[in-house]
Amino acid sequence: MTSNDLVVVLPGITGSTLGVRGDDGSPASEHLIWAPSGGAVWKLLTGGQSILDKALPEGIGDGHPDDGVEPVGLMPDVHVLPGIWTPVRGYDVLIGALEQQGYQQGGADRPASLIAFAYDWRLSNRYNGERLGTVVEPALEQLRARGGAYADAKVVFVCHSMGGLVARWYIEKCGGAEVTRKLITLGTPWRGATDALEQLVNGVKKGIGPLSVDLTDFSRSMPSLFQLLPEFACISNAGDWAKTTEVPVPNVSTAMVADAMAFHTDLQAAEAARPESHTMTHMVVGIRQPSQTTVTFQDGRAITSTTFGSDDDYGDGTVPLTGAVGLGEALDTNLAVRVPEQHTNLQCNQFVLDQVQEILSAQPVRRREITDTSLRATVPDLVTDGRPLEVAFDLESDVPGADPPHKAVTVTVRTARGKVLAAAEPTLRAGHGRASFADLPAGTHTVTIGGSGPDSTVRPVTSTTLVWPEPTR
């Protein structure tokens, strides 16, 4: 069942394909510079048409560089820029689920009730928030023109990761509140993520690990990546915790750090001044996955930790829970739906898709029971071809203080297209298991850790890893 509203899907950082319009006027879709079909990301990083050639000029701020780059569509499959954010599965599952509910992308004879909003994720979220209005508002007017039940249509945003920041800026700072009915965020870093701080400070340089390309200058040119910096105090400082604007942050632009903090504080002030921000918002957050939360600066490098002192709030493996919960709410807020899942897979998780359907239709959807055993999984983002992929996980019971349950668990590695490459059923010791996979082919693969058999009560989690080919010499 559909609502009569316009549903707009926003992907996260790196989640839109990018192209450059041809000199002969041919469309950008024919000259893609960011679209790792089949996970062949290295071809786009090292080939003749490389996204790395499109680093932004210094001082770009909230502007556009006029470099010919245009957003084309949403990523359909696994995508990753190594060391910049985290590998993410594509958005075809989410779009397909919405289409099955009856939402339709526009055609020659019908207005759209579903928009997949692609954007240039290099640019400031302020810029993309303003651009969002130029796409959404005309489409909404066309839908309303159908009359009847559509006359009072509004917009519902379904946003993964950084897409939620773009939508929030449009809603709160660009007049979008007047036309928005609901905001659904999936793993959005409402208050930022410590991973972004580590990535910007340490850089992603050629010769580090398996990389044969240098992504540092490209990553540090992106206002969007700075706007993923944590707003919360997470930097160890003389026995206390400091924000990024309260202590020197090595290796990066002080002005861009300050502007990123202003981005967050401006949004928070606007939301605090508008009570409807609370009533329209649905936060879906990943939980129970080891997540980098705090950082210590040592000799110009960022050393991360999963804890605040003795406290471990976990998160979705990329966004810690402290960063995932917004609107000034406590971590136990009733505005958040909690899902034991990794950031990479939240937009594909069936329980999350059920939640989205329920929020859209205002009808309860009860298709499966919530099982009783959760997983915490650690899967590396990147390994070198020829080296084993090491996966570690822990089982925990939903009953506080209970011993780890004795369950059979299977770890399965699949290609981005779903073909099974390898599977293992590790022996568990005190609820902890490890699996090692050798001789995996180069490419982007999904790793699912879950119970064995259809009647298992272990909640599966899915992550993504990139097997990088050995550089040719």
Automatic annotation (TrEMBL):
Spell out the InterPro entries in the cross-references: AB_hydrolase_fold (IPR029058), LACT/PDAT_acylTrfase (IPR003386)
GO BP terms, alphabetized: lipid metabolic process
List the Pfam families hit by this protein, alphabetically: LCAT
Q: Which GO terms describe its molecular function?
A: O-acyltransferase activity
Organism superkingdom: Bacteria
Q: Which PANTHER family match?
A: LECITHIN-CHOLESTEROL ACYLTRANSFERASE-RELATED
Name listed for the protein in its UniProt record:
Lecithin:cholesterol acyltransferase
Source organism: Terrabacter aerolatus
Q: What is the lineage of its organism?
A: Bacteria, Bacillati, Actinomycetota, Actinomycetes, Micrococcales
